[in-house]
Amino acid sequence: QVQLVESGGGLVQAGDSLRLSCAASGRAFSTFGMGWFRQAPGKAREFVAAITWSGKNSNYADSVKGRFAISKDNAKNTLYLQMNSLKPEDTAVYYCATMRRVFDSIIRVGENEYDSWGQGTQVTVSS
């Protein structure tokens, strides 16, 4: 099992940037891919971005493509999400999660493909 702790959320204005971090422990970080999901009030949790175990491949939801960037530092056991040009509709609780399969080269977007989740960090974007 992996323990995940997100940080970096906060209250910002539209157009600002934030970088979320997800520190992992308890499992070989370099062997599995990871993803970011988010849940806005009254809405279902949705896929935001994911990256493979090696960090070489990534994928994004259309709503964040070109504005967000996911990265994975295997030496620091940390996942990042750089969020630029933030919009009020990006307001949500952001969660990081680990993919079930080790050394998986496919970008997984379904929640059931992930097994460990962090507690979430709140991002609020004011207009």
* Poorly predicted tracts of residues: none
Task: Please give the largest β-sheet.
Answer: 7 strands, mixed
What is the terminal separation in angstroms? 39 Å
* Number of discrete helical segments: 0
| Helix/strand order | EEEEEEEEEEE
Content-based structural category: mainly beta
As a percent range, the share of helical residues equals: under 10%
Proportion of beta-strand residues:
over 45%
Assembly annotation: single chain
Q: How many strand segments?
A: 11
Tell me the Rg in angstroms. Answer: 13 Å
Residue-averaged pLDDT: 95
Give the overall silhouette: globular
Provide a concise account of the structure shown.
Helices cover 0% and strands 53% of the residues. It is an all-beta fold.
Structure, explained:
There is one protein chain. This protein starts with a strand and ends with a strand. Strands 2, 4, 5, 6, 9, 10 and 11 form a 7-stranded mixed beta sheet that branches. Strands 1-3-8-7 form a 4-stranded antiparallel beta sheet, with no helix packed on it. The protein has strands spanning 3-7, 10-13, 18-25, 32-39, 46-51, 58-60, 68-73, 78-83, 92-102, 114-117, 121-126. The mean pLDDT is 95. By secondary structure, the protein is mainly beta.
SSE blueprint and pairings:
Elements: E1 3-7, E2 10-13, E3 18-25, E4 32-39, E5 46-51, E6 58-60, E7 68-73, E8 78-83, E9 92-102, E10 114-117, E11 121-126
